[in-house]
Specification:
Length: 401
């Protein structure tokens, strides 16, 4: 057991084997198991338990759970079933495992390869990160929509979009990129992140800050585009003054069309920026094929919305042809401005991410230190082993993450 633990880096060069690796007889020195406190102190400091009986595995899992650890248990025999069922994540062998062990488990390794567990953890983290990116993107878009309409109302400008245009944006041009973000393949550093606490919400405080910040950036840029468009086509920016402009309804449609095109382009650009909270958009730019499909779909829908006769001018009240080349060029301000400003915002978000990871690291170290001090007072340990992310193991495979 010690040789295997050294081979997979569970036992580190600085660990004392006599302290960090023990026989399971230590759990029941007089034939009876230690008290709960004594058991918890022992399992908090020992990394390797050898010659574990089925009852030992169950007691170790219960002890780790009492300490707040998320515990995984691997096994293949009938005797492993109680511990597999007790663990937060029971992992059974798919080839050599018994049907009883498989039935008591949450996950089955079809190839009996422990490396598959690492791949499963990585995949789970990628899916979780994709959900966070999906929520962050779609919420920032909706925050921006509210900001833009609110600014138009309180300043006396014509409302930037009609209700039907807003519905079209949400369901047709915003949704595909956000779904593609949820299918991100994951960043290369995902396994280097600290395990998240069980009580951690999906959207963290720094993510809320990022959503509001990016929503404000998008709003400012698009409002500026809208103001320029109003001045170019209507000569005024306030609703009361525009009402006196000849043929103001058609000219107002032209200004709204420019803002509509600019917003779709800006959101499509932001979908690439949103693939990472801290890395530049050009890192692995084409790594998510679903994003390419989503952007193509959004662009097709945009040009149908502004160029297709009757549907564009009569239903959505958009005039892509009437705005001329000047309107299309003016709309380019939106995506260019959003790209630059959103990338600058990542400097703040990246710093907040690093601070959060540092807080998690300090929290884990504090918890390990507290457990070690208790163990020292109980006389179970002479030196505190270096805290590792890998966890603990027994011959049956109980692991604390």
């Amino acid at each position: 057991a010690i040789a295997i633990a050294h081979n997979v880096n569970i036992l580190q060069p600085g660990d004392e084997e006599s302290i960090s690796a023990v026989d399971c007889a230590r759990l029941r020195p007089d034939g009876n198991y230690l008290s709960r406190d004594a058991m918890d102190h022992l399992t908090a400091t020992v990394r390797v338990f050898a010659r574990a009986k089925p009852e030992d595995k169950l007691e170790i899992v219960k002890s780790l759970q009492r300490q707040g650890a998320v515990t995984a248990m691997t096994g293949d025999g009938v005797n492993d079933a109680p511990a597999l069922n007790q663990a937060n994540i029971g992992v059974a062998m798919g080839i050599q495992g018994t049907e009883v062990a498989k039935g008591a488990s949450d996950m089955i390794l079809t190839d009996d390869n422990f490396c598959s567990i690492v791949s499963a953890v990585e995949k789970g983290r990628c899916i979780y990160a994709g959900i966070q990116k999906f929520v962050a993107f779609i919420m920032s878009v909706h925050i921006a929509e509210v900001m833009q309409i609110f600014v138009c109302i309180i300043t006396g400008m014509p409302v930037m979009r009609t209700p039907l245009q807003i519905l079209f944006l949400i369901l047709v041009t915003d949704l595909p990129p956000s779904i593609a973000l949820g299918m991100e393949p994951g960043e290369a550093t995902v396994l280097q992140e600290r395990p998240r606490p069980k009580e951690e919400p999906v959207v963290l405080n720094w993510m809320w800050f990022s959503m509001v910040l990016n929503g404000a950036v998008l709003s400012v840029v698009i409002i500026l585009v809208y103001i320029f468009a109003l001045l170019y086509y209507c000569g005024e920016i306030l609703q009361t003054e525009i009402n006196n402009v000849p043929n103001f309804e058609s000219k107002l449609m032209d200004a709204r069309t420019v803002a509509f095109i600019s917003l779709v382009w800006a959101e499509n650009v932001r979908s690439y920026c949103s693939r990472s909270f801290d890395k530049p958009f050009y890192v692995d730019l084409l790594g998510n094929k679903h994003m390419q499909h989503a952007i193509i779909m959004a662009q097709i829908c945009l040009y149908v919305a502004v160029l297709l006769p009757f549907f564009s001018d009569k239903i959505l009240q958009l005039r892509g042809i009437a705005i001329g080349i000047e309107g299309w060029l003016l709309a380019l301000i939106g995506p260019i401005g959003c790209l630059v400003l959103c990338e600058l915002c990542k400097l703040i978000t990246g710093r907040q991410m690093q601070q959060y990871q540092s807080q998690l690291a300090m929290r884990h170290l504090a918890m390990d230190k507290a457990r070690q001090e208790k163990a020292d007072r109980m006389g179970f340990s002479k030196a505190a082993p270096e805290p590792q992310k890998i966890g603990k193991t027994t011959e049956a495979g109980a692991s604390r993450f």
